Amino acid sequence: MFQTFDDLTDPSCGAPHAALLRAELKSRDLDGFLIPRADAHQGEYVPPHDCRLQWLTGFSGSAGVAVVLGDKAAIFVDGRYTIQVRDQVDMAVFPARHLINEPLTGWLSDNLQPGQKLGIDAMLHPVQEVKRLRAVCEEAGATLVLLSDNPVDAVWEDRPEAPVGAVALHPLALAGKAAGDKLGEVQAKIKARKADACVLTQPDSIAWLLNIRGSDVSHTPLPLSFAVVAAEGRPTLFIDGRKLSNSVRDTLSEITDIQEPADFLNALNTLGTERRKVMIDPALAGEGIAKAITDAGGSLVEAQDPILLPKAIKNQVEIEGARAAHIRDGVAYAQFLCWFDEVAPQGQLDEIGAARKLEEFRVETSVLKDISFDTISGAGPNGAICHYRVSEKSNRKIPLDVPFLIDSGAQFEDGTTDITRTLAVGEMSDEMRRQFTLVLKGHIAISTAKFPVGTSGAQLDTLARIDMWKAGLDFDHGTGHGVGSYLSVHEGPQRIAKTGVQPLEPGMILSNEPGYYPAGSYGIRLENLELVTEARDIPRGERPMLGFETLTLAPFDLRLIDASMLTEFERSWVNRYHTRVCETLSPLLDDKTRIWLEQATRAI
Q1: Would you say 319 and 341 are in contact if contact means Cβ atoms under 8 Å apart?
Q2: Which CATH architecture best describes the domain 11-155?
Q3: What phi and psi, each to the nearest 5 degrees, are found at residue 198?
Q4: Pick from 306, 267, 95, 305: nearest CA to 184
Q5: Contact present, 490 and 482 (Cβ < 8 Å)
Q6: Whole-model pTM?
Q7: Cα(436)–Cα(28) distance, rounded to whole angstroms?
Q8: Which H or E run contains 277?
Q9: Mean pLDDT throughout 532-561?
Q10: Rounded Cα distance, 285 and 290, in Å
Q11: Does the domain made of 168-311 have the CATH classification 3.40.350.10?
């Protein structure tokens, strides 16, 4: 299987590991240290080699930061992880704080003392974050110390080796644009910013630019690497040579120079000594990168990673690949739902069993490369943990008369999928059906939205929440994230969230996933992927409007819908969507699953 169910966390590690780190800090004459979840690439998914926050605290979520001072410590997570962090971390050692409501900077301002020295690994904190940290330290009379090595690594005795996953070429038939053409467009952007070169730190940006994929992190085909793209001439890729076969190296060498990662900082120093103007993304590039350039005499041009938008706006080949991937995934998902409806009511199925079976159906497509993240298979109270990861220790039987939440996705070479359904097992109460239908209404509002050019995700986010707000309910995560093309299932800069400032553009793919999570009881989330469509004229309207095309093909559980709560428009949308699901998938299904699907998509 692509997913394992080993228990990867242990709250009891917090006290001894914090003690080891404090001793190391004392030996370096430091009073404190910050431990982010990120690696040097600022990625969401990091290899075990770089899971320092998990080693220190036990927390395995994809976002967070811990701070350790001599006599106190804390861990900061966002709303997705407020339940999970308390299960995985010793709260006596690392009290949990809400990253948004109780920010790290506020905690530091309250707890740093004049004369203290707070250390950070300069490669693990982006430039704009370091500006805020330095200001907080100065205000408190403390000093921010930039380190070139990490104290955690010095005391982490059994630290895993750095990954050396094989790199593969992503063919033009799937990429839709040659690497040389992409490079020319990026170089034009660098010149437009009057820069001499651009440093790329995001592995998915580099993968997209050079039409390569890798296997350095779980479930996301990334080759961990850095790159420097000159405004003129050939770029340089900094990657462990053990990842490259002779044929891949030969092909890459046609368009880029290749060096080892150990040469990266020296190359930045050279840019500095040559007094080059170097473009970096201050939200993504580590302070250590900026420092290597400026200390040697270079200057910085701060601008967004020039690949983020071109990567987010899928070309026609990538769009057709996404459609094909979702039909294929829809077949596997229908088979799973048919099986689940037969097995779950017997009362013996557990979370791991459901996750295993769903993966089996995807494997039967014969073209599955990986799942796109660890399947969130949440029974009962585990469903209320937004990013729950089932393990042998946490595994629960799927109970009767409680909704079951399953969030999963697939990596195919032509597209990345991500789908969440909440399923009825046994009898559902009126309150459960009410909550489910409120979430569904928000989902429909996003799916059917029409909006003018220039609209951001933040402007759409309220649509998913308004009916829930009227009922006094809400959910503590964004409504949707961007999705890559056989790349990261969480892609920026596009997102539907209160903080989603990027205007949505045709070709972007985003998730649509409102939810509701009564703590300690169960979870409800409904997720489809949506493609932003070209602006079209509206009858009797004054301006063209963008919209969404739903890519995901899977029925919503009719047993959880209270049709009386739906407007005629919403009811019609459900029926039209289900008709499309049935007509698209039925010819590809076996007789048993086809008959099940016809019943599951009947009109309401």
Answers
A1: no
A2: 3-Layer(aba) Sandwich (3.40)
A3: -135, 135
A4: 306
A5: yes
A6: 0.95
A7: 54
A8: strand 277-280
A9: 97
A10: 7
A11: yes
